Amino acid sequence: MISSKYNLCCVIIDYGLGSKVLKLAKDIGVSGGTIFLGKGSAKNYLLEWFDLTDIRKEIVLFLAEEHVAENVLDAINKKFKFCKPNHGIAFCSPLENIVGSRSCHVDKIKESRGSDDIMYKAIFTIVDRGNAESVIDAAEKAGSQGGTIINARGSGIHEKSTLFAMTVEPEKEIVLILSEKDKTEAIVESIKNEIKLENPGNGILFILDTISTYGIFKDN
Amino acid sequence: MFPFPHSIFSLQLEKKEVMSINILYEKFKEVSFTVLPVTILVVILNFTITPIDHILMYRFLLGALLIIIGMSIFLVGTDIGISPLGSLLGSTVTKTNKTAIVIFSGILLGFIISVAEPDLHILAGQVQDATGGATSKINIVMIVSIGVALLLSTGLFRIIRNLKLNRLLTIIYGVIFILALFTSPEFLAISFDASGATTGALTVPFMLALGLGVSSLKAGKNSEDDSFGLVGVTSTGAILSVMIFRLFAKSKDSTIEASTIVAKEINSSIFRPFLEQIPHMVKEMFIALLPLVIIFLIFNAISFRLSKKKFGKIVKGFAYTYIGLILFQTGVNAGFMEVGKVVGHSIASLDNDLIVIAIGFILGLVVILAEPAVHVLTEQIEDVTSGSIKRKVILFTLSIGVAFAVSLSMVRIVVPGLQLWHFLLPGYLISIFLSYKVPSLFVGIAFDSGGVASGPMTATFVLAFAQGAAEAIDGANVLVDGFGVIAMVAMTPLIALQILGLIYKIKSVKKDVDG
């Protein structure tokens, strides 16, 4: 068992830069990562009118020891200029356990940093394909600044079927929204009402704490 | 307000105002990089071995600009209009869980899309001439459309029944081979060109998305494997139907004179050809797009029932597609076609066969990049494989494939004895053989890319180039030698991409996983 010394790092960046992020992370000491594609949404009234709002994004996930994670995110932050809006978002979440990564050894040294306050939460919503935009709309109504949509497949107890000769896994969309701690409740409530998550089979929502966030700016 | 950790910098808006880097700009950048190579090639040729008339050159540059703008808008349109419609249709039809509905929808969709395809009408004109006017143009359009419809349906059936793509293709190409034995060389070229004619700029993105819509429902690895291949299967429908049609319509001698691309006199105005093209394209593209709009409206009323916002988005997608296609086609027809012919003609007049072949190679290398459906295919490949098969790799491989296609076509024009089937037969044999050796995903991608590569850019620019060259070389028949280029362009990617598949198969074995 590993105490919460390991972090899950997640970097959301413009399409095509994912490999570069991973390479940089590897240079600093991360053993490997996973990249997948997502869709970001832009906020701009003119573009929204033209419906030119979908931007392809890449999402990089990797595991790293806490202090390594910090270094990596700092380096990524500098190199890809997350300090400017729309250059990307990165965040870290604490982990309970890791299996299958031999290069990760338990590090007993406990470092304490001053900024342990959890300022942001990562809200994950898994819904049927096509509903992701409603989730984002609902979240934006409650003060969120946008989100990232990831295509996925899944299967719950409420839906499982075979069509013709093929086993079908229903298409899903995962919506990832980063929200400020104090807005989280409102956003979750708004999504819950919009998608009717209380009813079975409509989707799942869960929230992760984040330790450090980069590239997210407060709407002021 | 709240205390911020030092890592959060300034109090700025996240995704507002600064969103100048929008998708249209991104597409514009991406498209520019793919259209510039062919533009630069022609400019270089102009200043070196084949000086081109100034007016033609200005038209060409104006055409290139229109192509870049048109293609950018078109691609955004397919992203938010055509592709979502295709995958929606695919999954909706499959979810009915009734084989009859899938087959019927396949036939219906295939037929109405094919009937509206402008390239098919041009081809039908050729076939009409080739058969000495024995059959009317509209009959030919109908017959080819039925062929396309049946094969589209077969392709969908394959996905839902989990049949192997390589086996289906072996059967189809086996039948084509047998039919080819009874087909004259001229007609062979026309039948294979027909497969290029039915896979236009609109139909390819739609069919790609349709196949994806069905296969994305699947669980596990099959989902990825079966995402491609529908275009490849469908395009054989045209080959089959033209060949079968020929068997029954063997009325008159097939002496063919007509050249489809009417050589217009160089008129002194730069803009006039464009202005003449636009109204024509406005009408033609409207007819081509209409079936998709009707399908969308009907299905939305019966089954999708999209929210107002999503409905609006697809409608806007259609509008972009329409505008983009008009600009693109105008640019190609008014700016590129004439130049292609002139360049082909003057290079062939140099009396140096090697130069003709070499220029053909380079032209093939760059021209395929400017094919709109190539963007759609490569993007879809990246989406399906989560970016593990990179766009650039596919583009590069396609380029090499098409380069060989064009240069071999030049060889065929230069060397009198060589015939089209001398290339096609071994080519398809190798393709079918390879389809049993490479991962299924690549078989699908390869056979789809055949249809993708033979789009509007090749159908006009490369064809014009080949015809120009054939005109200038003694003993070359403009029709027999000039045509068949599209057949070649549709064939070589099959081999090129499957070889890429082989390389991936070998490379993707994990190295340092020890015990």
Task: Please tell me about this protein's structure.
The complex is a heterodimer of chains A (220) and B (515). Chain A has 220 residues and is an alpha+beta fold. In chain A, helix 1 packs across helix 3 (66-79). Chain A has helices at 18-28, 45-50, 66-79, 132-141, 181-195, and strands at 6-14, 33-41, 54-65, 89-94, 120-128, 148-153, 161-163, 166-168, 171-180, 204-209, 213-214. Helix content of chain A is 25%, strand content 34%. Chain A has two domains: 6-97, Alpha-Beta Plaits (2-Layer Sandwich); 120-209, Alpha-Beta Plaits (2-Layer Sandwich), CATH 3.30.70.120. In chain A, the strands form two sheets. In chain A, strands 10-5-9-6-2-3-1-4-11 form a nine-stranded antiparallel β-sheet. A two-stranded antiparallel sheet of chain A has the order 7-8. Residues 106-116 of chain A have low confidence and may be disordered. Chain A starts with 5 loop residues before the first strand and ends in a 6-residue tail after the last strand. Chain B has 515 residues and is mainly alpha-helical. Chain B has one domain. Chain B contains 20 helices and no strands. In chain B, helix 2 runs parallel beside helix 8 and helix 10 (230-248) crosses helix 17. Chain B is globular. The chains are: A alpha+beta (220), B mainly alpha (515).
